[in-house]
Amino acid sequence: MNDYTAQWTEEHERVLGIFRKTEMEEKLKWGIPIFTYNKKNVAAGYGFKDHYAVWFHDGVFLDDPHGRLVTATEGKTKALRQLRFTKEEGIDENLILFYLNQAIKNAKEGKTWKPERTKAETLKIPTLLQQVLDKNPNLKDNFEALTPFRKKEYIAYIAEAKQEKTKLARLEKIKPLLLQKKGLNDTYR
């Protein structure tokens, strides 16, 4: 949980109550309640610094006549959409149910976003990562032995850092994982 959870306790309980009125099943994933239909993630809610967000895992398929759905990270988030509320505004049950009923219907119809596959071989390995791999044959061998998906995770993890000091810190973090022949996110799987 984040540092803002406590300030959204009332809103969070209200949203969970709305979710529980539907035919979705409640599961605990990533330490938070996720609501599913037929084992497919549909919706969840979470408090942030300035807003409470109800997110829809395949929200890209939702009609948005109210113009309320937002993409969490523009240019990066593909399918997820958020419906945000502020303290002043409060939680709007009817609005949540409007989008939620669509999301459940879409899940029943099997609408789901399929990620575009990018081959790890076509991704450019960041210079700093390549230098580390070239200096350490064990790291390089272990990196090359990873599945394309795991290679892609490491490449993106380093490439997405904006500052060099962040890239260097991330390189130090991944060295032990590579020495253990682990993927970046294996712990969470």
Summarize the structure.
By secondary structure, the chain is an alpha+beta fold. The protein has 6 helices and 6 strands, in the order H-E-E-E-E-E-E-H-H-H-H-H.
3D architecture notes:
The chain has 189 residues and is α+β, with helices and mostly antiparallel strands. Helices cover 39% and strands 16% of the residues. It has 6 helices and 6 strands. A hairpin with a 2-residue loop joins strand 1 and strand 2. The relative contact order is 0.10.
What Rg is obtained from the alpha carbons, in whole angstroms?
20 Å
Count all strands and give the number: 6
Classify the oligomer: single chain
Largest sheet: 6 strands, antiparallel
Overall morphology:
elongated
Q: Please give the share of residues in helix.
A: 25-40%
Please indicate the percent range of residues in DSSP E strands (runs of 2 or more).
15-25%
Spell the H/E element sequence: HEEEEEEHHHHH
Question: What structural category do the secondary elements indicate?
Answer: alpha+beta
Overall mean confidence score, pLDDT: 89
Low-confidence stretches: none
Determine the number of helices (DSSP H or I, runs of at least 4 residues): 6
